[in-house]
Design brief:
Order of helices and strands: EHHEEHHHEEEEHEEEEEH
Number of strands: 12
Strand order of the largest sheet: 4-8-9-3-7-6-5
Shape: elongated
Length: about 350
């Protein structure tokens, strides 16, 4: 869940259970695709950040019968949870819309290696976050002791505190996390937390669409290589053929970016996030942009007419009752210009 949430029980009752079904054993870093040779995050040669609020659970959930081991445990008390969201989803102001632009990137060899590290770093942080969440679930199933609900900000803080010991080359002992941008790590943590709460809401019937399963660990080759940045360097260069991204630097785009660059330059657009993903052998940059689209003033018309375009008659205009108001004759340009086109008689 993006954003911390406080759970408060009414009438002095204890917060209801939020434990989830246990999943198969965690994958090792190599199985999860988190590290490659030399301890570096690996990756093959695009959200941002929608907020997800904790589902308010009613008394009917608490009186559910006991489920088999590994499922959600029985709740002893009937408790209604109140969730206080710290942040609200982004809503564009009036006259603005969120629009996406995609550009293929022409990466150099060094930029390909850097991009692969970002993809692997995101996958590694995702698997660590999911492993941490699953450990809390297993502890609840074994001891009945409740843990704090997963929160993006809390888990990201834990990751930043633990990455000095987690992101270490097993052969050289050097830390490799400085080679990966903080936004790639944060994207992995956010993805695991959102997957957890999507499954929680789907299981309780408060999420539309098909049923969601418990999030799975990501493995290199099976997970789409991608990472998203929402802060830092996200800039279109004035030459309209380059895009500057954190860690990657100035990257040449395969297409011209004039359609969006002129909007940004004139102050009519602003880049919110950039997602870099692998598509076949290419890297694609998807830009999420807020664009000014002011609504045109109404003409003040009070009636509606229909126009039928024809061949012999150019247009027939009728009102809602079907009464013909006007017929516009065909301009017949050939007949009008035929005398000029015909050669004069000899």
């Amino acid at each position: 869940m993006n954003g911390d949430a406080e759970i408060v029980g009414r009438s002095g009752e204890q917060p209801a259970d939020t434990a989830l079904r246990a999943e198969p054993k965690c994958l090792s870093p190599d199985e999860a695709g988190g590290e490659g040779l030399g301890g570096e995050p690996s990756g093959a040669a695009v959200a941002g950040g929608n907020l997800c609020s904790l589902v308010e659970q009613g008394p009917g959930v608490a009186n559910r019968k006991s489920q088999p081991p590994g499922r959600m445990a029985t709740m002893a008390n009937s408790t209604v949870l109140e969730v206080k969201k710290k942040r609200e989803p982004f809503v564009p102001p009036d006259g603005w819309v969120v629009q996406a632009f995609q550009f293929a990137l022409d990466l150099t060899d060094d930029q390909r290696r850097i991009c692969a590290r970002q993809w692997g770093g995101r996958r590694y942080a995702y698997n660590w976050t999911l492993r941490t969440i699953k450990t809390g679930v297993d502890n609840y199933n074994a001891t009945g002791v409740e843990s704090e609900p997963p929160s993006f900000y809390r888990l990201r803080k834990q990751w930043n505190a633990a990455k000095d010991t987690l992101c270490v080359d097993s052969e050289t002992g050097e830390m490799w996390w400085p080679e990966v941008g903080k936004e790639a790590f944060a994207d992995g943590v956010r993805g695991a937390v959102e997957g957890y709460w999507n499954w929680q809401r789907s299981k309780s019937g408060n999420r539309k669409g098909r049923k969601m399963g418990f999030p799975r660990f990501k493995k290199k080759g099976r997970d789409q290589d991608r990472f998203t940045i929402t802060t830092g360097v996200m800039r279109l260069e004035p030459d309209r053929r380059h895009l500057s991204i954190s860690k990657l630097g100035c990257v040449r785009t395969h297409e011209n970016t004039r359609k969006i660059e002129r909007l940004v330059t004139s102050g009519r657009a602003r880049i919110l996030a950039v997602t870099v993903r692998r598509s076949g052998s290419r890297a694609i940059a998807s830009l999420r942009v807020i664009v000014a689209r002011p609504q045109q003033p109404s003409s003040g018309a009070t009636s509606v007419v229909g126009v039928d375009v024809g061949v012999r008659t150019l247009a027939t205009v009728a009102n809602a009752e079907g009464r013909v108001l006007e017929r516009v004759a065909n301009p017949t340009p050939l007949a009008n210009e035929l005398s000029a086109l015909r050669p004069p008689p000899s």
